[in-house]
Amino acid sequence: MQIEIDEISKLFGATAALHPVSLSLPSGALVALLGPSGSGKTTLLRILGGLEFPDTGRVLFDGQDATGLSVQDRRAGFVFQNYALFRHMTVFENIAYGLRARPRATRPTEAEIARRVAKLLELIQLPQIALRYPTQLSGGQRQRVALARALAIEPRMLLLDEPFGALDAKVRKELRQGLRDIHDTTGLTTVFVTHDQDEAMELADLVVVMSGDKSGGRIEQIGRPQDIRARPASDFVRTFISA
Amino acid sequence: MMTGLVHRSPIPGFGLSAGVTLTMLSVVVLIPIGALFLEGFSAGIPTLIDTINTGRVRAALYLSFRLSVIAACVNLVFGLVLAWVLTRYDFPGRRILDAAVDLPFALPTAVAGIALTALYAPNGAFGALFKDLGIKIAYTQWGILIALIFVGLPFVTRTVQPVVEEIEREVEEASATLGASRAYTIRRVILPLLMPAALTGFGLSLARAVGEYGSVIFIAGNLPMKTEIAPLLIVIKLEEYNDPGAAAIGLAMLAISFGMLFLINLVQVFSRRRIGHV
Amino acid sequence: MSDTTFRPVTTETPLTRVVLILVSMAFLGLLVAAPLITVFAEALAEGAGAALESLSHPEAQDAIRLTLIVAAVSVPLNAVFGVAAAWLITKFQFRGKAVLLTLIDIPFSVSPVVAGLCIILTFGANSWVGSWLVAHGFPVVFALPGIILASMFVTFPFVAREIIPVMIEQGKTEEEAALTLGASGWRVFFTVTLPNIRWALLYGVLLCNARAMGEFGAVAVVSGKIRGLTATMPISIEMLYNEYQSVAAFAMAAVLALLALVTLALKTLLEWRYADQLAANRRH
């Protein structure tokens, strides 16, 4: 799905979080929102997911205005920074949650739900853990379960907030490839937020470099990793990507 | 001799603090409770059972237990609502409401008892309203129920409040991004997370209600078999100089409250093992 | 699309919120505020003069004096117990600690009437301890010592429960540091431990005092209700109420209700001002 962000701005009380920003993301791209803290990248992601409402501007999905679409109706697969797994539910129940939460008319049968959960566990390469609780999983396993839970609702796009932030260096590298594979298998437009330029450059097709000051976050440069490396658009980008 | 029991510590005062603690605990709590067991079992277990198994005692224990469960259930529901409202919403008077929750802890039970009676008696402010509707509250089981709700009111709210504060907003947001309505999120995500703490509060409220005396006797009417609670029966037995009878009922009440606490602890251990903590 | 239509996903609809707030207010209003107002309204039913007059009655004065004596003895004793138990439990490793903690908590789950009954069975004239004490001119039951014991029983865990979590949070490194600097045990306690736990201790003492002065069930059983001798304030409220002396009963009740309000105010103040020095998760 193609995503269009049109002159979006956001204030939190008196603090500006986003200067008006515009951005066009092609269908099926793997996009990194890269920037230091305070650059508004998470706010932008949450606006895409329907968790925040912009003060001005519009969000378009495949050319249709989705600005006022409720979070429930948006069908954005969202992976939270600390995964936000439901710790009183098993892995199976976590992944099945979105399907079971549907109104009766569109809710799949339990057999169908079981089939889909099994398929997703296969996809994240953890077929054995369906009956465990989140507290019994490693950090890397939790991240993949969160991914599977987000994919279960057959999302129109995948949004990830610092998906590798809570992991140690070794697991981080492995899971980068895992996300790439899942993106390639599903073909979903995928946006992830990171402050780690290596991660953005290595993983993404398209990198959006953001910076922030008192007037809010803004976009410094949009481009393929190699282009940003070869031709940084500003001093900020040059310093940030060489850090 | 103590080396097997106690790890050596550079901090002084083990002997003194252990001595003070164990002496006072024994004199004030343990020996008196021991005396209760001694007296209760002194005439033999058959006599003990016969004493408890009379119509009047059974009726009193059943009444105390049944009304306490109902009161604890009412407090469970309203306690959850209060904990949520007081933690999540900001509105004028929130602080006063929050402080008011503690009043049943601080107000002496005899004061609460005569105040509730004055209020809910047929000539009282609320009692008159209900009288017009044909409902009598004071001097009936309704009156006992109101007193028991009053004394158990703070427990659920106070045990649940810190847990509401701890719930990560992300978990609620995750539920919404997966398509769940707010009602579904509350039912399937929030309530299950609050349940272990709510259950603790329920148990405390129940234990308090089963043993409550001061706030109940004024409003109860105290008719044998109808509105006579178990603690009152102990007082009556003592006034008749029937120590073994009083001890037998006391033991039955102890057994009931410890049994309930044990049960609730079991549920806690079970849910804690599943959820990790809380 | 104006932003007033947007509601954060973690809140309920405004209507739900208003309904829940009103339900909370009604519940607390009917069960808590109304009885409290009733106490003062009934006390002042015949004017402030009549209420004050009833409080100046010698029997009322005796009851107030007795209640103050009971609190003045039982609360410091329980504070000493609480500090000793907290020191024992938080500074040393020993077997049976969990059992000890459970035993300290017993009074929370024992009916006050059963507590009084236990005191009677131990120290009453029918028990061998009690008969010996009576023979030596020191009756416990139907006398001041029994009332103090009963009050101590029901408030026994209050202080310990407040300071144990605080002392666990603070660990024992500060005490160990003071010891390496050459301080004696008592000096460590008074200069290091006590300043760290003072607000929690005060908090526990406050709750303990409110309960000790207001205790009815346990005291009713052991006091014998002898006017002027063993009738505490709550007991004399019962006696006056049963004699249909409404104003006198409610005047006495109003004094205790004021005590409860002051306790709540101080408690709220402590929680607000010294939140960081009280245990994070308090139980009552």
How would you describe the overall organization of this protein?
The complex is a heterotrimer of chains A (243), B (278) and C (284). With 243 residues, chain A is α/β, with parallel strands linked by helices. Helices cover 37% and strands 27% of the residues of chain A. In chain A, strand 4 (56-61) and strand 5 (64-65) form a beta hairpin. The radius of gyration of chain A is 18 Å and the shape is globular. Chain B has helices at residues 14-42, 45-52, 55-88, 94-100, 103-106, 109-120, 125-132, 141-166, 169-177, 182-211, 214-220, 230-239, 243-275. In chain B, helix 6 (109-120) packs parallel to helix 11 (214-220). Chain B has one domain: MetI-like (MetI-like fold, Orthogonal Bundle). By secondary structure, chain B is an all-alpha fold. Chain C is an all-alpha fold. Chain C folds into 2 domains: 1-43, no CATH class; 48-277, MetI-like fold (Orthogonal Bundle), CATH 1.10.3720. Chain C is built from 13 helices and no strands. In chain C, helix 1 (14-43) packs across helix 13 (246-273), helix 2 packs across helix 13 (246-273) and helix 3 packs across helix 10 (185-214). The mean pLDDT of chain C is 90. Classes of the chains: A alpha/beta (243), B mainly alpha (278), C mainly alpha (284). The interface between B and C is large, with 97 and 102 residues.
